Amino acid sequence: MNIEAAVALAKGLLEQLFMSSAPTQLLVFVVHGLIVYAIAFTFLSYFNRKPEVLQWTPVAPFFAAISMVFALFLAFHAADIWTHKREAERAFIQAGSAIKRFDELVGPSQLNLPEAHRELGRYVKYVFKDEWRKNRNQKGSDRAEGAFRNLQEVVLKATQTLPSSTATQLNVLMNDIARTRSDRLWIGGNHTEVSSWLAVALLGFLTHLAVASVHFDRRRAGAVALALLASTTTIAYWSLGIVADPYRHSGQLNPSAWIDNLPE
């Protein structure tokens, strides 16, 4: 297996994990924490049995060097995840605002463009059914793309007979709809950074070994310290895992609410 295939496989597994329910993710991270704890405690026990254990034991402040690197990477990783979440929510709100304004503008009370209203409804329907529900915003829908192109054609024809200010307003709203869709699909397809998760997990593992190393001469104290550290990292990973996929809770961001009377 080459590197690209391994990365793709890891990304797929992580995405499946982040799509899972919160209890399932917690279970996975607890199992991970127990495995890391077991390895670190075995590492501690091996050196604890050596007669010259004190000569193998680093000075206590040593573990801070590794743990600080781990803390920094974890903080940067968490910042990226929360940034993606905020960007996803902002794109959703901006898309809804642009679509609602467009729907009002082409409605009977203003420009009265029933064909544009119909194509807009088809676009929202396919975004909701295909991109949102079926593809989980990880890739675009041909039906949504086709409906959007039809909407563009309708708008292009309409702008030829409309005042320039109104035509400009329609085009601006169309650009907003297209841009927010691109933002949403990009975030949906790129929210999982395999290299970042791998780096954080490996640094967390090394932090466990560092804590174990400064307790070579105190096996019971090391067991307590490792248990606390494993619990802490498990909670930290789980807290990030449940928000890593910004579209996991599709009911909270429902595009069917963008317009009234969504066509069947």
Low-confidence spans: none
Helix share, percent: over 70%
Structural class: mainly alpha
Distance between the termini: 45 Å
- The fraction of residues assigned to DSSP E strands is under 5%
Major sheet size, sense and barrel closure: none
Report on the structure:
This protein is mainly alpha-helical and 264 residues long. Helix content is 77%, strand content 0%. It contains nine helices and no strands. The protein has helices at 3-19, 22-48, 53-56, 62-105, 114-134, 142-159, 164-190, 194-213, 219-244. The mean pLDDT is 88.
What is the strand and helix layout of this fold?
Elements: H1 3-19, H2 22-48, H3 53-56, H4 62-105, H5 114-134, H6 142-159, H7 164-190, H8 194-213, H9 219-244
Question: What is shown here, in short?
Answer:
By secondary structure, this protein is an all-alpha fold. It is built from nine helices and no strands. Helix 2 runs antiparallel to helix 9 (219-244), helix 4 runs antiparallel to helix 7 and helix 8 runs antiparallel to helix 9.
